[in-house]
Amino acid sequence: MLGRQSHGLVLRTFLDTSNKVILLDEHAGKINIYSSFEHMHMVGALLSYNLIMDGVRARVNDHNLIALPHHLAHYDLAFMHQLCELAYYFIPLSSCVPGIFNFLHMVWYAEYNSHVPVLSKYLILFKFFMLLGMYPEDKRFHTAAFYRMTALVPSQLPESIQDADINSLKSWIKECIHAHPMAKLFKVGGAL
């Protein structure tokens, strides 16, 4: 059975029970694989491999570790784990959400020189949920300010964002998180 060369980000591992690894593949979306290879169990790792899909089952071979998110892990390990947790729970299995792999790759492998500013984190989470097509129905989130924020780049923050906009953005993100049926189990909740 032939496969295709691909890349993936390790979202979660289950070393203690089954050697199960959850990958966000650039083509196939979120997939489950089983592997005992050490670098497959490094959360956040960028891997290259030959992906073989057999229906909904995925296998990989000829895998290599390309990179680890050293900058983000060094300066903000908790935020990296929050992103992994949200990606694990919100991205549907075997679903390839357009742009989500490239977005998370960009966030994880950016050159951080210090902690990620709080506003940048909020914008990253905002864009993450926007890519997933999540948008709270509450009318207070359907304003011109929110639509302008969709164009912001987390690394190039304008000084014109008001505290009220930041609080609204935080509320928007919480609404998205609380929409998930397992939200009470998330570790990310207290960090917002």
TrEMBL record:
Keywords: Membrane, Transmembrane, Transmembrane helix
Keyword Membrane: yes
Segments crossing the lipid bilayer: 86-110, 116-135
Protein name according to UniProt: Uncharacterized protein
